[in-house]
C-alpha cells in the first residue's frame, strides 16, 4: 500500500516555463512534507519542506503548496532552468509526538527541462 | 563542512554472503537513518538511530540490521544476501529526531550476484 504517490513518472517542460510536480498521500497522520531532488549516482538533495500547519512555503524559485483536505501537495518551479532536470521525490513524515517514523517517499517524477 | 560519507561506494557480493556498509554523519548530527532504493520499490525506510539506539524500523526482514556508535557513525549489515538485495543504500543524518534537515550521502551501490 503506497502511502505517498507521485502519479507522473516523468514530466517535460520548456525552459523558462513553470514546472508543477504533484504528490498525493493517504496517511492523515503525516504532518511534515519534503521535496528532494536527485541526480544519478548521487543521494537526494533537500529542496523545500512544509509543515501541515501551513498551506504554502516559498524559497526562491521553489514553492510548495499543501492541500490537507485533498491530501495533495505540489511543487512549483518558476522559471524552470536546464539544471532543474532531475528526479524529484516527494516525502512525508509523522513528526508530531516527539519522534519520526522515517521518511515515506513517493517513487519520483523525472523532470526534463527542454531548451 | 563535510557531508554525509558512505563507504564503500560500490560493492559486489555473492548470494548467501553478508555485507556491512558504513555511514559517517555530518559532524554534530546525532540521528542517522538508512534507506534502500530500488527501481521497483523506490526509496524505502530501513531504520533510524539516535544516540546509539534504534528508534524505528521499516518493513524489512531481520536480515537487515544496524547499529550506531558513540561518535554517531553508523553501520548497517545485511546477512544471507539475496539477489533482491541489490540496491542503492542511502544514509541520511540530521541534528535531531524528526524530519527536519535530513542530509543524504551519495549511497553505496550493492550488487548481489
Overview of this protein structure:
- The complex is a heterodimer of chains A (115) and B (113).
- With 115 residues, chain A is mostly beta strands.
- Chain A is 0% helix and 52% strand.
- Chain A has no helices and 11 strands.
- Chain A has strands at residues 4-5, 10-14, 19-25, 32-38, 45-51, 56-59, 62-67, 72-77, 86-93, 104-105, 109-114.
- In chain A, the strands form 2 sheets. In chain A, strands 2, 4, 5, 9, 10 and 11 form a 6-stranded mixed β-sheet that branches. A 5-stranded antiparallel β-sheet of chain A has the order 1-3-8-7-6, with no helix packed on it.
- The mean pLDDT of chain A is 92.
- By secondary structure, chain B is mainly beta.
- Chain B has strands spanning 5-7, 10-13, 19-24, 31-38, 42-50, 53-57, 64-68, 74-78, 87-94, 103-104, 108-112.
- The radius of gyration of chain B is 13 Å and the shape is globular.
- Chain B starts with a strand and ends with a strand.
- The A-B interface holds A 32, 34, 36, 41-46, 49, 89, 91, 93, 95, 98-108 and B 4, 33, 35, 42-45, 47-48, 55-56, 58, 90, 92, 97-107.
Keywords:
heterodimer, A: 115 residues, mainly beta, 6-stranded mixed sheet, 11 strands, globular, B: 113 residues, 7-stranded mixed sheet, 4-stranded antiparallel sheet, 53% strand
Describe the biggest sheet of chain A? 6 strands, mixed
Overall, the morphology of chain B is globular
Amino- and carboxy-terminal Cα gap of chain A = 38 Å
Average pLDDT over all residues of chain A: 92
Oligomer: heterodimer
3D shape of chain A: globular
Largest sheet of chain B: 7 strands, mixed
Helical residues, percent of chain A: under 10%
Q: Summarize model confidence as the mean pLDDT of chain B.
A: 92
The total beta strand count of chain A reads 11
Radius of gyration of chain A: 14 Å
Helices and strands of chain A, in N-to-C order? EEEEEEEEEEE
Q: Which SSEs are present, and which pair or pack?
A:
The complex is a heterodimer of chains A (115) and B (113).
Chain A: E1 4-5, E2 10-14, E3 19-25, E4 32-38, E5 45-51, E6 56-59, E7 62-67, E8 72-77, E9 86-93, E10 104-105, E11 109-114
Parallel strand pairs in A: 2-11
Antiparallel strand pairs in A: 1-3, 3-8, 4-5, 4-9, 6-7, 7-8, 9-10, 9-11
Chain B: E1 5-7, E2 10-13, E3 19-24, E4 31-38, E5 42-50, E6 53-57, E7 64-68, E8 74-78, E9 87-94, E10 103-104, E11 108-112
Parallel strand pairs in B: 2-11
Antiparallel strand pairs in B: 1-3, 3-8, 4-5, 4-9, 5-6, 7-8, 9-10, 9-11
